[in-house]
Every structure is written in C-alpha cells, then in structure tokens.
Amino acid sequence: MKSILFITLLSPLLFCKSFFAQSKYEKTFYGGIFYLSEYIISDEFDFYKKTNDEQNQIDQLFKVAVNFYEGDISEALLALTFTCLPFNHIKVKFLFGSQLKIPLPSPPKKIFDKRLENLPSKLFFDSPNTSFGDKDKLSHFFGNAFLKYNFGFFNMSKFMGIFVENVEEGLFVEGGYSFRDIIANNLGELFGKLLKENKNILPSDILKLYNLLYLRIIL
Q1: Cβ atoms within 10 A of the Cβ of 194, count?
Q2: For residue 145, is pLDDT > 50?
Q3: How confident is the model at residue 97 (pLDDT cuts 50, 70, 90)?
Q4: Phi and psi dihedrals of 72, rounded to 5?
Q5: pLDDT reported for residue 123
Q6: pLDDT digits over 35-93, tens only?
Q7: How far is CA 202 from the centre of its chain?
Q8: How confident is the model at residue 157 (pLDDT cuts 50, 70, 90)?
Q9: pLDDT of residue 89
Q10: d(CA 22, CA 35)
C-alpha cells in the first residue's frame, strides 16, 4: 500500500518533468529521436522499468512518442523506428572489397550507447537470454507498423520487409537474413493495420499474439 501511495504521489512530478522536457525539442523527426533517446536514458524510464515487464516498457515508449507528437501516430512510429535502431551507421559493400560507412540519424555516441543499453530486449517469450536479446526487432516492428499505417492500400510493408532483408544480406557488411526479423515485420504490419481501426491498441497487444500462436502450434 505504501508503494502504491508513493507512486501515486510521484506521478504528477514525473509528468511535469516530461512536460517541461518536451519544450526543449521541436515536433520534428529529429526532435522526436532526440527526445525519445533522452527519455529512454532518463531516471523516469529507469523507474518505470523496475515495476513493468518489457512488453509494457515498449507500450510506454509508444505512448510517450504519441504524446510528444500530440497524437500523430505516423510521426511517432517513424521516430520510434530510428530511435530503436541498435546501430548508428551502416557499412555498404562495393566492388573489390571497398566499404562506405554511412551515418544514421542518431544522438551523440554517449547517449546512443546508454539508449541501446536501456532498450527493452525481451520482446517474446523465446527471445535470446542475453543483454541484447531482441532489441534489433524493435525497429523492424515499428518500421513495418509505420509502412502499413501509411501505405495500407497495398502490401507495401510486407514487400519492404522482404526487400530489406534480402538487400541487407547482399549489400550491407553486417546484414543478414533472419526469420525472426520477418516475424517482427509481420507483427508490426498487423499493429499498423489495427491502429487505423483502433487508436488505443498497444504494441503488447500484438506482441503477445506470437506467444499464443506458438502455444497453439505446439498444442
């Protein structure tokens, strides 16, 4: 009871902290990435992580992003896609073994490293039992949700998901084809589709489907 009372009393303070922090950032693509990155490394998110599982943490990131963009789900999904990237550059292969390092939208390295450390890692019940886990699947999930939410008139998200996986394997130095990536893509696609019908749906509502489908197949 004491802990519940403490959280209740603390909640307005946390809200005020977030509210004033937002004023430092413009409601732009880059503003969202920097704001969300700062939030992920904040004491506020650390406090939230101590009392919530990782799927709920993903829900919280989605809520914070939507709130930052004042209800603009499309902008929130796009910013989350880049905020959750586990790398801040890509290496492109060329003929004769040459490579080109291309930077991606990202905060300074110190913030990037801390952000990566704090990202939720256990998206699914069978996520790798490591500190990294399935952190790389977050961008797949939100990226495909963004595509489906904005380009639902044809199967753009599925096409792009498969296209990117194959391009990664052949073009990028650190790329590779992963069926778990495809699973995250499909779940993100479903999330984007359902968001158009129900703005209150959360990432965990979709991520839990993976567990249910697995149990159904096993049983």
Answers
A1: 16
A2: yes
A3: low
A4: -80, 100
A5: 87
A6: 999 999 999 999 999 999 999 999 999 999 999 999 999 999 999 999 999 888 777 76
A7: 12
A8: very low
A9: 75
A10: 7
Hunting for tokens 């905020």 — which residue is that?
Answer: 83
206 residue type, one letter: I
Q: Which residue has the tokens 């990435």?
A: 33
pTM: 0.77
The phi, psi pair for 190, rounded to 5°, reads: -65, -40
CA angle (112, 177, 127) in 5-degree steps: 60
Full 3-state SS string of the chain? CHHHHHHHHHHHHHHHHHHHHHCCCCCCHHHHHHHHHHHHCCHHHHHHHHCCCHHHHHHHHHHHHHHHCCCCHHHHHHHHHHHCCCCCEEEEECHHHCEEEEECCCCCHHHHHHHHHHCCCCCCCCCCCCCCCCCCHHHHHHHHHHHHHHCCCCCHHHHHHHHHHHHHHHHECCCCCCHHHHHHHHHHHHHHHHHCCCCCCCHHHHHHHHHHHHHHHHC
Site of tokens 């009372």: 5
CA distance readout (Å), 195 to 95, 144, 147: 43, 12, 12
Residue 165 is encoded by which pair of tokens? 């996986």
Which residues, 6+ apart, have CB-to-CB distance to 181 below 8 Å?
136, 137, 140, 161, 165
Contact 29, 78 (CB under 8 A): yes
Phi, psi of 139 (to 5 degrees): -70, -35
